[in-house]
Specification:
There is one protein chain. The chain contains 1 helix and 34 strands. It is an all-beta fold. The strands form 7 sheets. The protein has an 11-stranded parallel beta sheet with strand order 13-15-17-19-21-23-25-27-29-31-33. A 6-stranded parallel beta sheet has the order 1-3-5-7-9-11, with no helix packed on it. A 5-stranded parallel beta sheet has the order 2-4-6-8-10, with no helix packed on it. The longest helix is centred in the middle third of the chain and has 4 residues. It starts with 5 loop residues before the first strand and ends in a 17-residue tail after the last strand.
Length: about 400
Amino acid sequence: LPQESCAIVELPKESCAIVELPQESCAIVELPKESCAIVEPLDESCAIVELPKESCAIVEPLKESCARVEPLEESCAIVEPLKESCAIVEPLKESCAIVEPLEESCAIVEPLKEICVPASVEPLDEICIPASVEILDESCTSEYRNVSTITFERGVQLRRIEKNAFRSYSSLSSICIPSSVEILCEGCFFLCCNLVTVIFETGSKLCYIEKGTFQRCSSLSSICIPSSVEILCERCFSGCCKLSNITFGYDSKLSRIEKSAFQYCSSLSSICIPSSVEFICESCFSGCRDVRNVIFEYDSKLSKIEKCVFENCASLSYICLPFSVEILCERCFSGCYKLSNITFEVTSKLSRIEKSAFENCSSLSSLCIPSNMTFIGESCFECRGLITAYESGPKLSSIDFSKCLIVH
């Protein structure tokens, strides 16, 4: 086409054409079905290229040119705007567009609606989360259910791992939680049955481990809770049947261990409760049948042990309750068959033991009741082996030992 010309170029079916548009020309190029065209508009030219179904076009607008490319249904367009060019690319339904804007170019790209990964592509074993990511939710991770390892780029800004983000990732075996993470939300690692290793980076800012976070991670064997954590929420480690070791960071800020947090951790052998803990809630360690040692750190702030906290801890043989504890609630040590020795610190504030608190503690043989005691509930000491019990003060008017075998 000569300079300043205006042309409508129609290419017949199955033709092959190279169309060169010189400066200041205007062309409308219509490519029929099954044709193949290479369209090269030159400097300052204007081209409107319409690609019909099943056609193939390579469109290369040069410097300062303007190209509008509209591939139709099932067409394929490769668009390469060069330096200082402007391209508007609008891939329609089921079309495929590869857009490669070069230096100083401007591209407006509307993303594809679907990506189909061929069956021949093998799943990833490891994924690395980019440093720029601040929140991870289920929609971000749903395509990676077969990964075994999750890592994070250096300098990651991640603050939250949202609800169910990695739920039921059965191949996941290890993860290192970045120090920037503040909250692990509900069920984010629920039922990761092969998760063995969870590490929290030094200097962790983590405050909350929400309910069900690591529930039923049946391969998890140990965990060190960062000192920054303030609350362990309901069922956060419940059903971790191989969890044998729990430790807490130095100078822990933990104040609450909520309902069923470690329930049915059947391999747990010992636990040291940080002095900062004020509440141990219902059924927290219930069913931990291998727990032998429960230690409370010096100067404990614990004020209340809720109902069923240590129920059916069948291997627990000894416990010393902190002086700060004021109430032992219903069935808190019920079914601890091997519990033979309970001691209270000399300055104990314990004033109330509720019903069935030590029910079926059949190995308990002697007991000294603290001087501040004002109430002991029904069947509190239904212990067939208890033969000696006495009080160290006058405040308690009566004790029901009717279910005990012999009392002196």
